[in-house]
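Pyrogallol hydroxytransferase small subunit
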Amino acid sequence: MKVFVVDVAKCNGCYGCQLACKDEHVDNDWMPYAKPQPDTGHFWMKLIEKTHGQVPKVNLEYTPYSCMHCADPACVKKSDAFYQREDGLVILDPVKAEGKKELVEACPYGVVYWNEFLNIAQKCTGCAHLVDEGQLPHCVDLCATGALRFGEEEEFAGDIAKAEVMRPELGTRPRTYYLNLPKLFIAGEVWDQASDEIIEGAKLTLTNTSGVKMEAESDDFGDFWFRKLNPGTYTLKVEAAGYQTVVKNTIELQDSLNIGDIPMQK
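Structure:
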């Protein structure tokens, strides 16, 4: 079975995959898998761009996002216009999709689009026409950083064991696997309030409500970062030699957070 493996850490936001999809499908008829994609409005492969945090502690992260080519696709259960090939690629039949705008709602991942000009629903085909010829999907082929890969499931067994899928609670068993998906962070700066100088090497301990602890140290700019966090409530303890310990209780984390300066007193 074919799978996609996406390493978000390797994506630099060049939008090459999104452009490659347009290059392959706009004005090109790849029947029986797809009629031409319109110039605008469709993103069979798109890059989700998200800004995490607040100035000056900010990360900009990119996540390639397309059809998940699920092993148990919800769309196939809703309409016979969708079908799954033996290699696992999920296809929306262009003929059966004609005039059926309701098919846009068949995918819980929101990757089915409506083509007003052709009066059909459309989606990513995994470039099935290229795969049939032993080639890679165009988005994968043109990915400059290796963030996108495609091939047999056995080929990527090691990566799949460490990977995540989008919205696993849906039970659709996506066959697009993600490494290094963006997580949340807590960041800030430690400083000496009296001397108005940063404090390097302060020990910071972050504890979640389950009692799991993470440690970090302030760097030579007084900055600290706790990365790869899940939403929740945290307690932060700051310790530095010669300074009074500072404790910040009930840090509510729903989005990445710059908690700002933490003043310490001797």
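The CA atoms of residues 84 and 90 lie 4 Å apart.
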